[in-house]
């Protein structure tokens, strides 16, 4: 008992000091900023640095800034009588150029309509509680690109679906056949039977020619229908009617036939009736909208087109490459590894130069691709290679037991990947994917190197206007562009945090 009692306190414990305030700025400063001498010193140095950076920036952008004026004289210190900051009248005068580039002023309503449609379709996708996500996603990712292309580029609809599909099929097959013929000619003139390689080239080229010719014969019914439609008196409406009949018949058959397919048939006919009304209202059956070549596009329009197309198109490319790199089929795995390592091993500037200036040299003479489309394809493949490694990291983070449990339940490999593994993998790599998207959005400024005027390209072009040549014009323009880039990137970052917290809500303690 005496040993046990020696461990029992015989007197009262001394009083502790009163606790500090647990809330508010004072409590935060005491516990985080000035709790140790080292932290106090770092806090003071940080405040001084912020003061040295933020105060001059605020004075330049707001306090000493010029907000009204008709030309450069309003932004000169001699006119204002004091040091002049940002020249915001320059931004106001060039704002339309920053947004539309050299897009014709009379046709800019098409750009505004495209932006409006994109916002109407995108905002419901970003709000979790809005219903009909599948329909909304199909409209945004499948229907909207075609609508946006016709709105921005213009032109008529000479051939609605059948005409376009037949044209693309025939053009592609003819281009493949021409490439095979070139290979055959190269092999035939490279050295005769003494060398195996020229013979192999000739055989491969003749095989490609034979395959393209065979596919042209197979697609003959489609090409014949296209020719009959174009030869009729009203090619567009005949094409719309033929397309409506074919698509509606397919929808009727897929929807269940005579028993349950009537609803799908009715919906298809209503959709085509709406499309026909829009075509008539916009005059697409009478020559269509005025064609605006992509060389006239510029400003924020090009930046958003390149960024959104690159982000959306790079995701399926990245998913396919990530799954291909984990495939058990050697050919698919080696192709995916080679593709990823090649595109990650070259800078984006090289990709843009190759897509713009060198790719046309490898295409047949009668096969051309628009310059902006070539850039979009190059950026999508480049970003897809980076996304593939990010997604592969997410796939490796999913436990092997998930696939085994899905197999035990009888799910096929495709359903296991699409419904079990891939959703968990994408949830793990949200920060990495959004980081790639932000980098891609900022890298769109590199397209100005290949004669595409994005936001920064239009900004630099506006500096050549002598009516706004002032000492502060350059800094004002870059500050305006920097604000736009920061707002978009910060919004993407915050939304990714919101999605990450929402998807990981079940893991909170």
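Sequence proposed for the structure above (509 residues):
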């Amino acid at each position: 008992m005496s040993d046990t009692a020696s461990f029992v306190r015989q007197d009262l414990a001394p009083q502790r000091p009163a606790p500090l305030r647990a809330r508010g700025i004072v409590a935060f400063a005491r516990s985080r900023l000035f709790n140790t001498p080292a932290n106090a010193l770092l806090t003071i140095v940080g405040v001084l640095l912020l003061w040295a950076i933020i105060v001059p920036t605020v004075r330049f952008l707001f306090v000493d800034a010029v907000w009204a004026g008709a030309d450069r004289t309003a932004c000169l210190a001699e006119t204002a009588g004091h040091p002049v900051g940002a020249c915001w009248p320059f931004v106001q005068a060039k704002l339309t150029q920053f947004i539309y580039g050299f897009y014709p002023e009379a046709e800019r309503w098409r750009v505004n309509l495209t932006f409006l449609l994109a916002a109407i379709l995108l905002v419901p996708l970003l709000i979790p509680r809005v219903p009909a996500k599948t329909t909304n996603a199909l409209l945004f990712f499948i229907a909207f690109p075609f609508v946006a292309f016709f709105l921005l580029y213009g032109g008529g609809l000479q051939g609605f679906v059948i005409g376009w599909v037949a044209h693309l099929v025939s053009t592609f097959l003819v281009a493949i056949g021409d490439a095979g013929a070139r290979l055959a000619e190269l092999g035939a003139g490279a050295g005769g039977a003494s060398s195996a390689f020229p013979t192999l080239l000739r055989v491969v080229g003749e095989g490609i020619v034979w395959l393209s010719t065979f596919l042209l014969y197979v697609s003959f019914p489609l090409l014949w229908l296209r020719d009959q439609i174009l030869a009729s008196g009203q090619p567009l409406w005949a094409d719309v009617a033929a397309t409506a009949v074919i698509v509606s018949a397919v929808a009727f058959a897929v929807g269940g036939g005579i028993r349950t397919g009537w609803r799908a048939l009715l919906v298809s006919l209503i959709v085509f009736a709406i499309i026909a009304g829009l075509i008539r209202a916009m005059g697409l059956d009478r020559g269509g909208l005025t064609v605006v070549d992509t060389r006239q596009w510029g400003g924020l329009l090009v930046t958003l087109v390149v960024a959104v197309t690159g982000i959306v198109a790079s995701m399926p490319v990245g998913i396919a490459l990530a799954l291909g790199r984990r495939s058990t089929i050697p050919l698919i795995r080696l192709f995916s590894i080679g593709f990823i390592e090649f595109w990650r091993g070259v800078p984006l500037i090289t990709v843009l130069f190759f897509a713009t200036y060198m790719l046309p040299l490898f295409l047949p003479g009668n096969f051309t691709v628009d310059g902006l489309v070539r850039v979009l394809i190059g950026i999508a493949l480049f970003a897809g290679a980076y996304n593939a490694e990010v997604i592969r990291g997410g796939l490796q983070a999913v436990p092997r037991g998930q696939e085994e449990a899905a197999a035990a339940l009888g799910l096929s490999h495709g359903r296991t990947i699409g419904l079990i593994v891939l959703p968990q993998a994408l949830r793990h790599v949200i920060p990495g994917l959004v980081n790639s998207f932000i980098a891609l959005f900022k890298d769109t400024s590199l397209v100005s190197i290949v004669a595409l005027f994005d936001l920064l390209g239009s900004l630099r072009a506006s500096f050549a206007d002598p009516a706004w040549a002032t000492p502060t014009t350059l800094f004002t323009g870059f500050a305006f562009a920097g604000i736009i880039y920061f707002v978009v990137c910060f919004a993407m970052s915050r939304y990714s945090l919101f999605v990450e917290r929402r998807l990981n809500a079940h893991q909170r303690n």
